[in-house]
Design brief:
4-stranded antiparallel beta sheet, Elongation Factor Tu (Ef-tu), domain 3, 4 domains, conserved putative lor/sdh protein from methanococcus maripaludis s2 fold
């Protein structure tokens, strides 16, 4: 009997030890954690476009008289300084004839006035005739002055750049005959450029004039320029099916034809952020796990601005507690965790 009781006691001790060992070996998940950070994050919108001359900075170079382009000295894309020769131009014979006729008319008006004055002094002409002769002289002088303003008295002329700029168009050919006022070439100010950044129509309502833009070359991201939105178009461009955001450039860092990427800053605010891997999602929404007393605590969050590294969050979390960034897919609320060495 005593031996049976001893055996039963030994078995009970064995079972109790096994239960204690099992409890001591309760499962835990190996995780890696990080601390939340408070930092400023900007919500941005990207668009792409090509640099071109601004409408207000482009000037048509022409002459107010008819003639012939005898020589073109520049071609599209050339950078020119103020005073640089652009083209040579011969005045049309009809314009030269009109100038000579105006000179002759002035000479005749002067002679007529001189003769009328003498006749008036001899009482052979009236005061009204003298007044008419004076008016005829004034009209002849005005007509000749107008011809001079047109440059009709010049047999040839050399067109020069009125300012530092870029030749953006040469719509004529060498030897071509032009009517008065016809454009010989188009010149844009070097610092009067613009880029039209194409964005999706659905995003156009987020953008307003005055928002900051960081411009960079598509082929060399190190070349950057900070600017602001000048205008947001109110219609879709039929060629690109995008809405253009106009950014004016007052810097010679970029030249016409360059392809640029523009990053428009929509909003900027200070937020609590966590590494992107810390945020999980399921049918109940976004959530994170925080560690308290070696156990995982699930916390529902709302996400905000997201970058390639961090995500801004809001919710009932404790900023002082670490957040799980690795191993969180294996966790459930209340699970025991052990942290990997950092």
């Amino acid at each position: 009997m005593k031996s049976a009781l001893a055996a039963a006691f030994a078995l009970g001790l064995t079972l109790a030890f096994a239960r204690g060992s099992h409890a001591a070996e309760a499962p835990s998940v190996l995780v890696k954690t990080a601390q939340m950070k408070r930092q400023a994050l900007a919500e941005t919108l990207a668009g792409y476009g090509r640099v071109g001359p601004d409408i207000g900075s482009t000037v048509n170079i022409n002459l107010p008289r008819p003639g012939q382009v005898t020589r073109l000295l520049v071609s599209p894309g050339e950078v020119v300084k103020a005073g640089a020769p652009l083209a040579e131009f011969d005045t049309a014979s009809a314009a030269a004839l009109a100038y000579r006729q105006a000179e002759n008319a002035l000479s005749l008006a002067r002679e007529d006035l001189k003769r009328t004055r003498q006749m008036t002094a001899e009482r052979l002409a009236t005061q009204s005739q003298l007044a008419a002769a004076r008016k005829a002289l004034a009209d002849a002088e005005a007509a000749l002055q107008a011809q001079r303003a047109l440059g009709a008295g010049l047999a040839s002329a050399r067109l020069r750049a009125p300012f530092d700029g870029i030749v953006v168009g040469v719509p004529v050919a060498q030897g071509e005959r032009l009517a008065a006022g016809a454009t010989v070439l188009q010149l844009a100010r070097a610092t009067g450029l613009r880029v039209d950044l194409g964005i999706e129509p659905e995003d156009s309502g987020k953008v307003r004039a005055g928002m900051p833009v960081r411009l960079s070359s598509v082929f060399d991201s190190r070349r950057t320029l900070d600017a602001t939105v000048s205008q947001v178009h109110g219609m879709v461009d039929p060629r690109t099916q995008l809405v253009d955001v106009v950014v004016r450039l007052h810097d010679a860092r970029f030249i016409p034809g360059m392809q640029l990427r523009g990053e428009i800053t929509l909003t900027s605010a200070s937020s609590w952020t966590v590494p992107r891997s810390a945020v999980l999602r399921d049918a109940r929404g976004a959530y994170i796990f925080q560690v308290k007393d070696a156990h995982a605590r699930r916390v529902a969050v709302q996400t905000g601005v997201e970058t390639d590294r961090v995500t801004a969050i809001r919710g009932g979390f404790d900023p002082a507690l670490p957040v799980v960034v690795s191993g969180n897919y294996e966790l459930e609320d209340g699970m025991a965790v052990r942290e990997a060495a950092r």
